[in-house]
Amino acid sequence: MSVTVFTDLDTLYKKSADTFVELSEKAIEKYGKFVIALSGGSSPKAIFNLLATEEYSNKIDWNKIYFFWVDERWVPLNDEKSNAKMTFEALFDKVPVNKDQIFAMYKDGIEPEDFAKEYENQIRTVLGEEGIFDFILLGMGDDGHTASLFPGEKILHEKTKWVDAFYLKSQEMYRITLTEPIINKAENILVVTFGESKKHALNEVLNGEYNPELYPMQLIERKAGFQLFTDDKAKG
Questions:
Q1: CA 216-147-223 angle, 5° bins
Q2: In sequence order, which ranges of 111-165 are alpha helices (DSSP H)?
Q3: Is 220 within 8 Å of 138 (Cβ atoms)?
Q4: How far is CA 219 from CA 5, 55, 73, 81, 129, in A?
Q5: For the chain, how far is it from start to end, CA to CA, in angstroms?
Q6: Is the dihedral of CA 122, 124, 128, 131 positive or negative?
Q7: What CATH class has 2-177+194-216?
Q8: Which residues contact 131 (CB under 8 A, 6 or more apart)?
Q9: How far apart are CA 96 and CA 119, in angstroms?
Q10: What average pLDDT score do residues 192-220 get?
């Protein structure tokens, strides 16, 4: 487990992209594929933009990567709130990925709870019954949530399902998310979070009493393969 503090975001983004390349090379050499789950938000977008540049894109064997998502708002894929839409625009439309190996967390004509079961089956098809992702990219909200594991929600206690959907009253929408058990199975986890607004939650997550009901990021095990990239504004 390591926490790295950066003094500027450009360096943080570059180190994140370098980590992606390094882990992809290791997984493809070992397993013949790189199976990952991506997050949405502004920091992943900046990392995706970097990966789409010639400097990085040429180092990556895109056809051997399987892309899943950590979580998603239950909105159509052309909706501005869609994490998948952002990732296509920032990355997938610019690099030679195999579209059959992209598993968006949304489908028309199905209820979110039913699709959560279908999505879990898609993960099992690629990863088998062990369900070990090679790499998961996470962020953290100002309230200490990660993925769609929000403070006080029932989803925090899910121990059996790998994927679940629920209605988040505070946002008046359904969310679909990977759960704590499958996230913690991952071989490598990178958390990227920064800025003054994250300072209180990050301090509680790293140094406070264990209270994942209030700070869900504490559910993520800080074991070998866990890295957290932040800046000196969030970790003063």
A1: 65
A2: 112-127
A3: yes
A4: 21, 35, 21, 26, 22
A5: 19
A6: positive
A7: alpha beta
A8: 123, 124, 162, 182, 185
A9: 24
A10: 96
**DSSP bridge pairs for 73:** 175
DSSP 112: H
* Side chain identity, residue 166: F
User: How far is 210 from 10, CA to CA, in rounded Å?
Assistant: 32
Tell me the per-residue pLDDT of 154-196, one tens digit each, with 9 for 90 and over.
999 999 999 999 999 999 999 999 999 999 999 999 999 999 9
CB 81 within 8 A of CB 75: yes
Residue 173, strand partner residues: 168
Beta carbons within 8 Å of 190's beta carbon, 6+ residues apart: 16, 19, 135, 136, 137, 138, 227, 228, 229
Would you tell me the crossing angle of helices 42-51 and 83-90 to the nearest 10 degrees?
A: 30
Please tell me the distance from the alpha carbon of residue 214 to that of residue 152, in angstroms, as a whole number.
Answer: 6
pLDDT at 234: 86
Place of tokens 């559910």: 219
The pLDDT of 97-105, averaged and rounded, is 97
- 54 in the Ramachandran plot: left (φ > 0), alpha (ψ -120 to 50) or beta? alpha
pTM: 0.97
**Share of residues in the chain with pLDDT > 70 (%):** 99
